[in-house]
Write a structure and sequence with these properties.
Four Helix Bundle (Hemerythrin (Met), subunit A); 2 domains; three-stranded antiparallel sheet
């Protein structure tokens, strides 16, 4: 019995150690990704500031061009006797200024589009980081510690040849880890509802003192019904 029990404890401890190693690795990965995120955000802020400065310059130049163009048109209106060559030169200059004005408008549109894409990419990185962090939090919250008044109760929970602990695991779907931790048993499951059912059932079984497979099934079913009716 002791050999089998130690073997079960060793295997379950190994599972917990493996899970803790995975959690640590994922925490390191999250920290690295958060660092990269900060770097991207700073780069995006720098790009945003540069774009805003360029937009301000474009607006200033566009205002100046519009002002010059209006003055030029007024001068042309006041001039009556232009030669063909002079009129051609004036027309070319007018078209040149108009083309420059349109080019500045297109440049501003390109800058605004780049700015929107940079903000969109930053939001995408933030959302992905939040989702990964939430997944890691779910893994970290997969263990509940059930405290005992004394280590003598561990033997009753394990039962003869481990029949009680197997009955609890089968009825609740939760792994029970009984090791050298004083006055404590670890309940392991990714389902928080199953862990809570196992915790309440153990609490009732320990308080009652009658721990055997039939009683375990009865208490677990009553606990499930009680939680559903809440």
């Amino acid at each position: 019995m002791r050999s089998n029990h130690e073997k079960e404890v060793f295997e379950k401890n190994k599972k917990i150690n493996d899970a803790e190693n995975r959690i640590r690795q994922k925490e390191q990965s999250i920290n690295q990704k958060e660092g990269n995120l900060d770097k991207h955000l700073k780069e995006n802020e720098t790009i945003k500031e540069n774009l805003n400065r360029q937009i301000e310059l474009v607006n200033i130049k566009r205002t100046e061009l519009e002002k010059h163009q209006e003055e030029h048109i007024r001068r042309l209106e006041k001039i009556a006797g232009l030669t063909a060559e002079e009129a051609k030169t004036q027309l070319v200059e007018s078209l040149k200024h108009e083309a420059q004005s349109k080019a500045l408008v297109i440049q501003q549109e390109i800058i605004e589009d780049a700015k929107q894409k940079a903000n969109k990419e930053a939001r995408k990185i933030i959302i992905q980081t939040i989702q990964r962090t939430a997944a890691e939090q779910a893994i970290e919250n997969s263990i509940t510690v059930f405290n005992l008044e004394s280590d003598e109760i561990k033997g009753q929970i394990i039962g003869r040849e481990g029949r009680n602990i197997r009955a609890i695991e089968a009825a609740t779907g939760v792994d029970l880890i009984v090791d050298d931790t004083p006055e404590a048993i670890v309940l392991s499951s990714f389902d928080p509802l199953r862990r809570e059912i196992a915790r309440l059932s153990l609490q009732r079984l320990v308080a009652d003192g009658r721990i055997h497979p039939a009683r375990i099934e009865e208490v677990v079913e009553k606990t499930k019904s009680k939680l559903k009716n809440r």
